[in-house]
Amino acid sequence: MAMTGKMVKNRYRNIWIIMAVLIISVGLVSACSRSYASNGERIYFTASSDSGNYISYTGSIRMMHSITCANCHGADGKGGRVNMMMWSFDAPDITWDHLTSEEHQEEGNSEEEHEEHPPYTEETVKQAITEGINPAGEPLDEEMPRWKMSQQDLDDLIEFLRTLK
Predict the structure, then answer these.
(1) Alpha carbon of 56 to those of 41, 51, 98, 140: distances in Å?
(2) pTM for the full predicted model
(3) 20 to 30 A Cα–Cα from 9, which one of 27, 59, 135, 144?
């Protein structure tokens, strides 16, 4: 039986989907099999804790695979332009010195800038991670997930963020 143009197109589409799933799976397996110096580092790079629990989130972007802090903020925490699916946005620098600096200022997704707010403290960083609220009590951009994790995992993540320079 001869294949129609539509059948060929569907076959190629299915091959691309299978390849994408395999590439994502290999990336996740390699990230999860890497050894980490701390539980906080594991959470930052894999969105899972040493206990083996996945760290879930609400809001933000939903993808075929899990997102992690490092997906947007980078391995070094310095952020930058993030391209996901059909749109892009700017992820802020979350290095500890930058967050807690008196001169802290974030750039928005467009030409306008966020309103100024006080520097972050440990408590307001925790609030940003779990509630998506900045130190002035204003919501962070919608791209920022609201992470759900235990207090110990959150403390461990903060400890790791303090190492990002």
Answers:
(1) 16, 14, 26, 18
(2) 0.73
(3) 27
Its domain, for residue 7, covers 1-33
User: Based on the domain organization, do 102 and 118 belong to the same domain?
Assistant: yes
Per-residue pLDDT of the chain (165 residues; tens, 9 = 90+): 666 766 656 666 666 666 655 565 555 554 555 799 999 999 999 999 998 889 999 886 655 457 899 999 999 999 999 987 777 899 999 999 999 998 755 544 443 444 588 999 999 999 999 999 999 999 999 889 999 999 999 999 999 999 999
**What's the number of domains the chain is made of?**
2
